[in-house]
Automatic annotation (TrEMBL):
SUPFAM superfamilies given in the database record: Radical SAM enzymes
UniProt source species: Candidatus Methanodesulfokora washburnensis
The organism's place on the tree of life at top rank: Archaea
Molecular function terms from GO: catalytic activity; iron-sulfur cluster binding; metal ion binding
Name of this protein: Radical SAM protein
């Protein structure tokens, strides 16, 4: 028996947000195990730690950089082979630091399959890509699209999520496209003279700078975008709907990359070609059909503003009215935006939010404070941009603190939280509070979650229920009565749709 430990976003094993998210990675691992006929169970790391029982056998851990404390605690209970994958291995030193048997870097499908077939003896794995040992790695490379299409996530594995998150009420992420086409480099670090000599693909940089926004590891870890086959996505969604999943997120660093790699390959330009509207239309129309047939709700995860125009917004509006969509603005200052490697200007991001709002979607805007080169002027402009997106109708403004991630251009930068950073954070809290107050008195459709809680079906803050505890997965109507915090509102059940 193997154990898949899902530590994604667990942090110190006390997740405060994203409690209703079931990521795509652990189900992909489960799919590989199923294809080899191997028995497994899957657990959230918090449940594993709560049980506190020793496990003997092979453990496959999926984690992000921030989850190292939770992983370190879990490892104390494991006696056997320990393999780790996910964004946490962008720091290759994690394998030695945590005394693991093996790490899998970037795209791990081929590597994991081979390890399961051959064992963890390094001498038998020399030709297998993306393996991280305590004292070195095999060749690190990206999958070809053909290799990528060979693997399918498990549907049944979702049923292991029966605590928090619970599969009957949580957002289950279905990967539709992997990675991001922003292969520009942050101007803060590059010499423009050398840039001019670069080949157009820009996969490798002669100056040794990882691709993408300076704070993001996605293009470096996963390479140019690759879309899944429509049929395989639809099969997975139908399977999930049949086992009782009620909320599906079509996931990817940018949904608008879907099908673009069929227009140009490798795809390393975040602007041209335009999104593949035919591929997007075809996928969304079929998912929409399944959603009506099985009664689940769906949304897309992110969109890059550089790919949003009138046509794109109209198409998304046709299938995704009243659903949320995440747009990164990050800084309000144009110069700063170029320095950090953004694929578009703040003005374009604000315009994208406006277009999507007008098309009937509910954009969430993202900003980052304490980025390298943040100064009084850029912070003031960021606050201005936050006000603009709020006035245009962005439903939520999320501000993250800059974290220097391994494998990014900014990995060696120090975080300096100053008075300007605090102003940015406080302003977001204020704006979000105003937006949430507007919810008071509204009736929203929600799905009952463990405890006396519910999640709004089409996105929004968690609702604490004042009257009763419906069965998990039951669809209810809730009247919002109070705003408790930035993340929580209260309401009472007033019916079933
Ligand atoms: S932040 Fe977004 S646009 Fe920038 S590299 Fe990452 S995924 Fe691409």
């Amino acid at each position: 028996m193997l154990l898949i430990l899902d530590a994604l976003a667990a942090g110190k094993a006390r997740r405060l947000s994203s409690l209703d998210v079931i990521g795509a990675g652990p189900r992909l691992i489960a799919g590989i195990l199923e294809s080899l006929g191997l028995e497994y169970k899957l657990m959230r790391v918090e449940d594993f730690l709560k049980k506190g029982r020793k496990f003997s056998g092979t453990v496959l851990i999926s984690a992000m950089t921030m989850d190292e404390p939770a992983v370190a605690r879990a490892l104390k209970l494991i006696d056997g082979i320990k393999i780790i994958g996910g964004p946490i291995t962008s720091d290759l030193g994690v394998v030695r630091r945590l005394n693991l048997d093996l790490g899998i870097w970037g795209e791990g499908e081929i590597s994991l399959r081979e390890v399961l077939l051959r064992g963890v003896d390094p001498s038998k794995l020399k030709d297998v890509p993306n393996l991280v040992f305590r004292n070195g790695t095999t060749k690190l490379r990206y999958l070809t699209r053909e290799e990528f299409l060979m693997f399918k996530p498990s549907v049944n594995a979702v049923k292991f999520y029966s605590t928090i998150p619970h599969y009957k009420c949580s957002r289950v992420y279905v990967e539709v496209v992997r990675s991001c086409s922003n292969f520009r480099r942050p101007k803060l670090l590059v010499s423009q003279d050398i840039c001019r000599l670069c080949p157009s693909e820009r996969i490798l940089c002669p100056q040794g700078i990882p691709p993408g926004c300076g704070y993001c590891s996605i293009p470096y870890l996963y390479g140019p975008p690759k879309s899944r086959d429509e049929e395989s996505i639809l099969d997975e969604i139908e399977g999930l709907a049949k086992v009782g999943v009620r909320r599906i997120v079509l996931s990817g660093a940018d949904f608008l990359e879907y099908g673009r790699d069929l227009l140009k390959n490798p795809l390393t330009d975040p602007v041209s070609p335009e999104p593949n509207l035919d591929a997007i239309d075809s996928l969304l129309s079929k998912v929409s059909y399944l959603s009506k047939k099985y009664g689940f709700y769906f949304e897309v995860e992110n969109a890059k503003p550089s790919l949003v125009d009138e046509k794109v917004a109209k198409l998304l509006g046709k299938y995704l009215k009243n659903t949320t969509i995440h747009i990164g603005v990050e800084t309000g200052d144009e110069k700063h935006s170029e320095l950090i490697g953004r694929p578009c200007s703040p003005e374009e991001s604000i315009k994208a939010i406006k277009l999507l709002k007008e098309a009937g979607l509910r954009p969430y805007a993202y900003f980052i404070h304490s980025l390298p080169e943040q100064n009084r002027r850029s912070a003031a402009k960021t606050i201005e941009a936050m006000r603009s997106v709020f006035e245009i109708g962005a439903e939520k403004i999320t501000v993250y603190r800059f974290r220097p991630l391994p494998g990014t251009a900014f990995e060696k930068f120090k975080v300096r939280v100053d008075a300007d950073s605090r102003k940015i954070s406080k302003y977001a809290i204020r704006l979000n509070r105003v937006r949430k107050e507007l919810l008071v008195g509204n009736v929203v459709k929600a799905v009952a979650a463990p405890g006396a809680y519910a999640y709004p079906l089409q996105g929004g803050p968690v609702i604490r229920l004042k009257n009763g505890k419906p069965k998990i997965g039951e669809i209810i109507e809730v009247k919002i009565t109070d705003v408790v915090s930035d993340r929580l509102v209260e309401g009472f059940i007033c019916g079933a749709p």
